[in-house]
Amino acid sequence: MESVTETRAFLKGNEALALGALHTGMNAYFGYPITPSSEVPEVLATEFGNPQYPGFKVFLQAASELEAINMVIGAASTGAKVMTATSGPGFSLKQEGISYAAGMELPMLIVDVNRSGPGLGNLGPEQSDYFQATKGGGHGGYRNIVLAPASVPEMASFPALGFSLAFKYRNPVVILADAFLGQLKEDLTFPEVPAPKFDVSWATTGARGPERHLLLSMHLDLPDQARHSEHLRSKYEEVARVEQRSESLRTDDADVVLVAYGITARLCRRAVGTLREKGIRAGLLRPITLSPFPSKEIAALVERGVQKFVVVELNMGQMVEDVRLATGGRARVETVQRLGGLLPSSLDLVHQVEAMAR
Amino acid sequence: MIEIEGHYEAKLGHLPTLTSKPTHYCAGCEHGTLTRLIAYALNELDARERTVLVDSVGCSVLAHEYLNVDAVQSPHGRAPAVMAGIKRMRPDLLVFAVQGDGDAVSIGLAELIHAANRGEAITIFLVNNAIYGMTGGQLAPTTPAGMITTTSPRGRDIALTGPPMDATKLVASLEAPAYVKRVLLPVTPTPTADFYNARGSIEGARSIQNAFRVQEMGGFSFVEFVSTCNVNWKMSILASKRYATDVLAKIFPPGLYKDKFGVEKR
Predict the structure, then answer these.
(1) Order of strands across the sheet that contains A145-147
(2) b/e map of B231-241 (b: 16 or more CB within 10 Å)?
(3) I need a labelling partner for A15 at 20 to 30 A (CA). Which of A45, A208, A337, B11 fits?
(4) How far apart are CA A136 and CA A131, in angstroms?
(5) pLDDT tens digit string along B97-139?
(6) Which residues of chain B fall short of a pLDDT of 50?
(7) Is the dihedral of CA B216, B217, B222, B225 positive or negative?
(8) Directed axis angle between helix A13-23 and helix A39-47, to 10°?
(9) What is the pTM of this model?
């Protein structure tokens, strides 16, 4: 694999993500190979030692996803910018570590290139890890911040956004992509921005005088645990208040609003145009943060009089629950779903939405 | 108890590597001894400000309450992976964990073996008391054949659960580890129990210092401490010390299994 040093490039989503992480000053990567995410460690292994990325200190292939996420915990405890990438089966194994990281309030970036089905499934794209990513996933009750890129340029730029949120809130951040986005090739430019520095005064890198730092997820005294959990709760509430992100396309006068993220948002973008040509005033709301979910934007649309939402997702109905919650029962919420790694054709999508809209 | 504490303090002086908290360890348990020996070694190496302790899960989960150093918790069995993450990012730090036999040899065997096989420059102290202590005395991979535990109430049947596993031999069988040692930590009573031999503590103290030195020379170091758990073995403290000497030390023979850098000769 040729080393990519150009700022303009034509890359797969996974490759763009790996290079994007390096451009934002990632210090360490630990991972275990899994299709369809393996280009991430492959690119990083190639770039390791490249003087263009002096902050990139560690690349290590772990013996398992469990080992990888715990190495991430260790590196994160030193205040490093650290990332791991995987797909569904590996994401399941990482949940244990993510729960501990949430409890210890460790910033880290976890990439899930969503493949299809429960169990081994197949290598096609699905969005069926939505619940696992956005609702906690591991034990004990916590929230990840979850970002949903919808293009190769966003695969490249979201590591920077992810690290900034991870360090701002000292919380795990998940980039939830899918097999299609990981393998899709597009044109992109890497912006020349200096790697940001974050406050890591909490890191455990040796005691200083009488002061020492502890990173603990265990509080045996019940009131202590209650205090810690309440602290986490207020953090999640602040994140929900401040960090909801979404993109709106022609929603201003829309009667029917499609809601989709990632690769399905790309299909919907096109469908909106076709539906408009057919005289249906359609719009698209694309959540960029899946957690916190952009409920405020949906509530505002309902307030403006939108009566119908169509949630398009590659699963049996996961994000639709958040959309229904956000509408407060004041609008109809329909669904278009595809399973097994298949995508709806944009014509198919248009027909289905048309039938629902009329 | 307070008098003994005072006596130790008088002999060792105040150790900045120890907090002032009394430990939660049961009477007769070697965890308390080991904690103090580790604190002593860290102090001797003047290492407090470059040390990170990784808590494991088990009776050692509260090690940070007693050892006055920076600490990070880890999920059950995963301490070696967390340590590797720290050490790879910050090779200047002295990184160690105290793991139990359930943590290291059962749920975390893969993490232990792979960290050892990569020769991570970290130090692992394994407290092998042949049983799950914290959870109340269940079968461990190191439990001797025939031992009664809460999940082997008729005694360990090795036809069903296999014979006791030897972590030290497993680690020593790998090429990368630099220092692998097994110490019988409990005091050994004379037949009349008039005198106790504290050779284990002396050997332990030396081994801990050597293990840290090996880490600072860039090697993986592993010291297993054959220990007791009189509470869950349902024995008197005296009987548990005898059992460790007479039974456990035969299954898990103490000795130097690997010393690549020759630190024991220095």
Answers:
(1) A58-61, A28-31, A82-86, A108-114, A172-178, A145-147, A289-291
(2) bbbebebeebb
(3) A337
(4) 8
(5) 999 999 999 999 999 999 999 999 999 999 999 999 999 999 9
(6) 1-10
(7) negative
(8) 40
(9) 0.96
Q: What are phi and psi of B162, to 5 degrees?
A: 80, 165
d(CA B227, CA A317): 54
* Amino acid found at A184: L
The secondary structure element, H or E, covering residue A82 is strand A82-86
Query: How many A/B residue pairs have CB atoms within 8 Å?
Result: 127
Query: pLDDT digits over A80-98, tens only?
Result: 999 999 999 999 999 999 9
Please give the structure tokens belonging to residue B204: 């332990």
CB-CB under 8 Å, B49 with A206: yes
> What is the DSSP-derived secondary structure letter of residue B62?
G
Q: Residue A138 — pLDDT band, cuts 50, 70, 90?
A: very high
Report how far residue A268's alpha carbon sits from residue A151's, in angstroms, rounded to the nearest whole number.
13
Angle at B212 between CA B44 and CA B133, to 5 degrees: 100
Q: In sequence order, what are the beta bridge partners of A43? A: none
Q: Which residue has the tokens 């609702």?
A: A135
∠ CA A272-A276-A282, nearest 5°, is: 55
Residue A109: φ, ψ to 5°: -115, 125
Residues from chain A contacting residue B82 (CB–CB below 8 Å) = 70-71, 73-74, 77
Taking a contact as any Cβ pair under 8 Å apart, which residues of chain B between 90 and 119 contact chain A?
A: 90, 93, 110-111, 114
As given in the structure block, the two tokens for residue B136 are 């109340």
**CB-CB under 8 Å, B89 with A70:** no
Cα–Cα distance between A198 and A196 in angstroms, integer?
7
Q: What is the pLDDT of residue A233?
A: 98
Give the residue from B194, B56, B187, B64 showing the smallest Cα distance to B125. Answer: B56
Q: ipTM of this model? A: 0.95
Tell me which residue has tokens 């420059």: B121
Q: What is the C-alpha separation between A279 and A256, in angstroms, rounded?
A: 12
Q: How far apart, in whole angstroms, are the C-alpha atoms of residue A104 and residue A170? A: 9
Confidence band for A357, pLDDT divided at 50, 70 and 90: confident
- Tokens representing A157 are 């730029």
- Contact list in A for residue B52 (CB cut-off 8 A) is 77, 204-206
B49: DSSP letter: G
pLDDT digits (tens, 9 = 90+) for B137-150: 999 999 999 999 99
Tokens describing residue A231? 């602290």
